[in-house]
Amino acid sequence: MLANVWMNASKLAEMVRTQGLVYKKGKFSAIEDAQLRTAIENFRVAKSMTDNDIANLIFTKDRGRGEAFWQEVTSSVHLRPITAVYHHVRRLWHPMRGQGKWVPAEDDSLREAVAYLGQQWEKISERVGRSASDCRDRWRNHLEGQDLRKSGHWTKEEEEELTRIVTELTVLQGKEMDSEIFWGSVSHRMGGRRGRQQCRIKWTDSLCTQIKNEGSKPRWSQLDAYILVHKIDSLKVNDDSEIDWKKLPDEHWNIWSAHTLQRRWLTMKRSVKGYEDMSHGELMDILRTKKATTPPPQNAPRSRTQKQPRSAETIVDSDPEEEEELGSSAVQRTQSAPA
After folding, report:
1. Which end of the chain is more exposed for a tag (fewer CB within 10 A), N or C?
2. 149 near 193, Cβ under 8 Å?
3. Has residue 266 been placed in a domain?
4. Which residues of the chain are modeled with pLDDT < 70?
5. Domain assignment present for 2
6. Which structural domain, as residue segments, surrounds residue 62?
7. Which residues, 6+ apart, have CB-to-CB distance to 204 below 8 Å?
8. Other C-beta atoms within 10 Å of 64: how many?
């Protein structure tokens, strides 16, 4: 069904709820990207098509013309809906993809295009010379409401307002405070003074963790690093792009957000010399050895004569928290989902 029926997000959610449909959503892994490229190349060879023929098929506005193509390509990736594959492949193959940092002149062009066309991103893309998704994300994350938007330190009043809004959208509706939220709505309810990414990061990486830690700001420890490495090791993935960061916490270890866990992992990974040339398995062998012994409790006394080596944990503690976009590959399921 997933490879043959075009369903939007609402329809997929309904199918999960009423029929136990199981599907993946979120960022595609490096392995999935490789599977898609292989499937597209196999289709091209089987149909004696050129690269231009494939590009025309991918970007045609007549989606029905490429029905067989999209069904075959979608079948190459497990549990991905055809609609998600369609949009992902179009982003991957877009000729304007990966153009680098936006310059002021492009921002001005985007503002003018949005003022004239509204949020018709495909038409805006043609005017600005960037992909539709790039234009949409640049507008929503950086330019929309820029005159109203604040940056820097959050006041206590802002934190309380954000906590109230998120609580209204989650806990007061019978959901967990970690439930997914449309952060654009949260930003709007804050009067646009903070952007959706600002709200998301402030909540998931700061306020939510403090609430879980009984009001005090938690500190990343050697034990946290130990748990993270061994949880990732237990997944037996071939690449860290396959990790669903939202599924790592459990009932006994749930203070840290998925965003924080991904960032901490990246820092530990980068602490290994030559990590760029290593496979995920080779990297895990090194980190698993470093974390072979359970660290002592945080309140255990340290020997004054024992030197503290500069290990992965201390590198994590000293590393600035760069804002990296979180991608997950969450699997939507219900208890009654079929095997």
Report:
1. C
2. yes
3. yes
4. 98, 297-339
5. no
6. 9-92
7. 257, 258, 259, 260
8. 7
